[in-house]
Specification:
alpha/beta, Rossmann fold, binds phosphoric acid mono(formamide)ester, 2 domains, 5-stranded parallel sheet, 37% helix
């Protein structure tokens, strides 16, 4: 594998799942693979799970790890070509990227949508520049439109907990005080479509995701109807995608907060969220603390998804 930014990069999901479960049984099985190899993790945005689980994954593979927080201690970076650099950004990404590539073998990048320009975000300008100019295999630690390490972990978790071959999985929008990117729901939708589950997306009008991510999912605007008979509930907030509303908050309707009222009409569904989660905005205390909440095993699987991905990138090194 030369890069990992979307579900297509992982190939056959059954093969990827088998590899994940093998690694879960013995996470140090490939500890020799990364000897004398260096992973550089570059964060344009904050993280708890991605930072720790990806570093742990690299350690499972015997790698050295360097972490760079672009906004803490590094030069501020200009990202647009053609800009006269007379402002507060003394270095251009186009020099910084190949320099970073000199010091490592594999690069992980976290760079969220900026919500200033939908075309800039949806063309994945930042991570694509790393792919083009670093000279190294690059993987996404959440980019503008996708969070594939999270979605891979979500897929592993659903496969571990499912009680029927083709479970009903519901992605539900829930309220949040800040405008959040569509990366997690986009990516989750992409992986759920690829897994061919009975997949439903529910959200208020105006929160439609980009059609290429909705794919074959059923869109149901009535949250209670969507939840009927569900096996998994995946809650997430996202800001609007469509037209002039891109990046805007259109609703803070707390009736969409996932609580016992909604969970009661599911088929004893498991509750999932990528975390961090705002309690009593996205989900009530009672639901996230219930026996049906699998948010911690879901987070634990981030180490497994990252180990599979970095292992494959190491195997693809020339
Ligand atoms: N789910 C997730 O990516 O968490 P962090 O933002 O803490 O990395």
């Amino acid at each position: 594998m030369k890069k990992f930014t979307c579900v297509q990069d992982i190939g056959d999901l059954k093969v990827a799942l088998a590899e994940a479960l093998e690694i879960k049984k013995d996470r140090f099985k490939y500890v020799e693979l990364g000897r004398n190899k260096t992973l550089m993790m570059i964060f344009f945005n904050s993280s708890l799970r991605t930072r720790l689980s990806t570093q742990k994954a690299a350690m499972n593979l015997g790698m050295n790890v360097m972490v760079l927080d672009i906004n803490q201690g590094a030069w501020k970076l200009e990202t647009e070509r053609g800009v006269i650099m007379d402002g507060d950004r003394p270095e251009h990404l186009l020099e910084a990227i190949p320099v970073m590539g000199c010091y490592c073998d594999i690069i992980g990048v976290r760079s969220f949508a900026q919500f200033e320009n939908r075309e800039f975000d949806y063309s994945e300008t930042i991570i694509n520049q790393f792919i083009k100019y670093s000279g190294r295999p690059v993987f996404s630690m959440e980019a503008a439109t996708r969070h594939p390490l999270q979605s891979f972990a979500d897929f592993i978790t659903i496969e571990e907990y499912k009680r029927k071959p083709r479970p009903k999985v519901v992605l539900t929008w829930a309220p949040h005080p800040r405008a959040l990117p569509q990366a997690v729901p986009n990516s989750f939708a992409e992986w759920m479509n690829a897994a061919d589950y009975d997949f439903v997306i529910t959200h208020p009008h105006g929160y439609e995701l980009a059609p290429e991510f909705v794919g074959n999912a059923k869109v149901e605007y009535d949250q209670m109807k969507a939840f009927e008979g569900a096996d998994f509930i995946y809650a997430k907030n996202w800001a609007a995608y469509s037209g002039d509303n891109y990046g805007k908050i259109l609703s803070t309707d707390r009736s969409w907060t996932v609580g016992e009222r909604q969970m009661g009409i599911t088929d004893d569904a498991y509750f999932m969220h990528c975390l961090p989660v705002r309690r009593n905005m996205i989900v009530t205390d009672d639901v996230i603390e219930s026996a049906q909440s699998i948010v911690i095993p879901e987070a634990a699987n981030r180490e497994i998804s990252a180990t599979v991905v970095i292992k494959r990138l190491l195997e693809g090194l020339e």
